[in-house]
Amino acid sequence: MERLRAGGLHPRLGVVYAGSHEASEAYSRSKIRIAAELGVSMDLRSLPPGAPEGDIARETGDLSRDPSVHGVLVELPLPPQADLGRVLEALDPAKDVDGAHLLNRGRLLRGGAGALYPVTPLACLALLEDAGVSPEGRKVTVVGRGETVGLPLTVLLIKRHATVTVCHSRTADLAEAVAGADIVISAAGRPGLIAPAMLRGGQTVLDAGISVLPDGRIAGDVDPAAAGIVARLSPVPGGVGSLTAAMVFANLIRAIRRQGHPAGRGPSPPGTGGRGGPGYPD
Ligand code: NAP
Asked: In this model, does residue 272 exceed pLDDT 50?
């Protein structure tokens, strides 16, 4: 970000926030903290939980058209009266730092050139890379086929030559699928779903689940007692969630490049995974 500012560009992130959800509020707070640390300014558009879909789409469109805003994201979950697909039609795909727009999803399927990828799957890949665990040739079990995490993550893992098993609420034998994997990544939003008895030594386990327990604590999908069994387990809170917020800013840099700003040209800073940023092939 320093190099962008030195080039005369002041990175700015637009966020549309409608309604209230404890897990997404915690996620928003971590983005605000990282933005302050990086010197990225934020344009936060907060709407009440009852805001009609049209108002949410209008704020998204306004931010997309604002030339001083380089990345835009719509906080999830949206309130029930709003359809995400229709709201995202107002979003400029070149500013889609969450990788949620249909065009970016299509590009993800086609191999990634020019795409902005969804951030939680990127965070999972970055954590694996950091641990020195390559998905290539490994058996990976993804728990959850949600559009935000499980489904795009499955695509990214296949592109990285993993053999992927995807589990969901109708999977007949979750324990068998989890036990047979080298790498387990859970994104179901069901606290304690992955019990220690399902796991074995040597496995790498990433917990992308975030749930708020009745006593206010944040919990993942994996029973924390599993940490004593497997080779590595990402913690909740922390782990995938912390890195997910950081990936929004990695995508912001990529978005600035896609928008063709002269300050965004040149090689990536060290540690950002090459020209495209962490997790990208190009
Ligand atoms: P989602 O769309 O609701 O998907 C949840 C998935 O879990 C569904 O595919 C569902 O199966 C599956 N599932 C539910 N109960 C199950 C069970 N008992 N056994 C096996 N699978 C089960 O949710 P999402 O938006 O993908 O998010 C998933 C989790 O990730 C949530 O906890 C969310 O808070 C968290 N999240 C974390 C981050 C982060 O930064 N770490 C970011 C985004 C989301 P069906 O398809 O059959 O219903």
From this structure: no
Alpha-carbon gap, residue 274 to 45, rounded angstroms: 33
Ligand 1 atom with the shortest distance to the CA of 209: 32
Which helix H or strand E contains 164, and what residues bound it?
A: strand 163-167
Q: What predicted TM-score, i.e. pTM, was given to this entire model?
A: 0.92
Give CA separation, 64 vs 1, 58, 88, in Å.
20, 10, 10
State how many domains the chain has.
2
Quick check: is 6 in a domain?
no
Q: ∠ CA 258-250-64 to the nearest 5 degrees?
A: 50
Tens-place pLDDT, residues 5-32 = 777 889 999 999 997 666 667 777 888 8
Dist. CA 244–CA 149, nearest whole Å:
11
Residue 7 lies in a domain: no
52 CA to middle of ligand 1, Å?
25
**Mean pLDDT of the region 200-227:** 96
Whether ligand 1 lies within 6 angstroms of the CB of 86 is answered as no
In angstroms, the CA 42 to CA 32 distance is: 8
